[in-house]
Amino acid sequence: MQTLMPEPQIFVERTLALIKPDVTDKEEEIEDIVLRSGFLIVQKRKLQLSPEQCSNFYADQYGKVFFPNLTAYMSSGPLVAMVLARHCAVSYWKELLGPSNSIRARRTHPHSLRAIYGTDDLRNGLHGSLSISSAEREIRFMFPEVILEPIPTGQRARDYLSLYVKPTLLAGLTALCKEKPTDPM
């Protein structure tokens, strides 16, 4: 009796990464680490948020003691927003960031980004989405023009490949075989 295994599915997840105002001068260095860690930078922009925009972005933190300091800090200068993509992007980015308190990060996760670039709990250098749903909300906030469509899986993915990809590949590969160019590129 043959065991039936489901076909593997490729799911590319996206997350939001922010380089906070006090470490934007390390942007290139941080991007290099991001890319070497297997992430693709899908979108990137440098912007400065007003205190009101920061309040809206961190609305889930409203009412906490540190909220006024957080909004003041995040609006104190330009920041770099990036949409990162890879398999399990949210969890891998959180792992690369390390604990939110930079002092604790230096003790427990000395190679994490917050241990390297942060100074304390508030000024921890970088931001990362906590979940897939918060990543979608945060990406829409920082990149309002972006269209976040669900990546097709299962039958929808097979239908898309059959309808759009396979005919194009077949025509192109057939033409290549017939002409056999010396430089196929």
UniProtKB/TrEMBL annotation:
<comment type="similarity">
    <text>Belongs to the NDK family.</text>
</comment>
<dbReference type="GO" id="GO:0006228">
    <property type="term" value="P:UTP biosynthetic process"/>
</dbReference>
<dbReference type="GO" id="GO:0004550">
    <property type="term" value="F:nucleoside diphosphate kinase activity"/>
</dbReference>
<dbReference type="InterPro" id="IPR007858">
    <property type="entry name" value="Dpy-30_motif"/>
</dbReference>
<dbReference type="GO" id="GO:0006241">
    <property type="term" value="P:CTP biosynthetic process"/>
</dbReference>
<feature type="domain" description="Nucleoside diphosphate kinase-like">
    <location>
        <begin position="12"/>
        <end position="150"/>
    </location>
</feature>
<dbReference type="GO" id="GO:1902176">
    <property type="term" value="P:negative regulation of oxidative stress-induced intrinsic apoptotic signaling pathway"/>
</dbReference>
<dbReference type="Pfam" id="PF00334">
    <property type="entry name" value="NDK"/>
</dbReference>
<dbReference type="Pfam" id="PF05186">
    <property type="entry name" value="Dpy-30"/>
</dbReference>
<dbReference type="GO" id="GO:0048515">
    <property type="term" value="P:spermatid differentiation"/>
</dbReference>
<dbReference type="InterPro" id="IPR012410">
    <property type="entry name" value="NDK_H5"/>
</dbReference>
<dbReference type="GO" id="GO:0003341">
    <property type="term" value="P:cilium movement"/>
</dbReference>
<dbReference type="GO" id="GO:0006183">
    <property type="term" value="P:GTP biosynthetic process"/>
</dbReference>
<keyword id="KW-0808">Transferase</keyword>
<dbReference type="GO" id="GO:0005929">
    <property type="term" value="C:cilium"/>
</dbReference>
<dbReference type="InterPro" id="IPR034907">
    <property type="entry name" value="NDK-like_dom"/>
</dbReference>
<protein>
    <submittedName>
        <fullName>NDK5 kinase</fullName>
    </submittedName>
</protein>
<keyword id="KW-0418">Kinase</keyword>
<dbReference type="InterPro" id="IPR036850">
    <property type="entry name" value="NDK-like_dom_sf"/>
</dbReference>
<dbReference type="InterPro" id="IPR001564">
    <property type="entry name" value="Nucleoside_diP_kinase"/>
</dbReference>
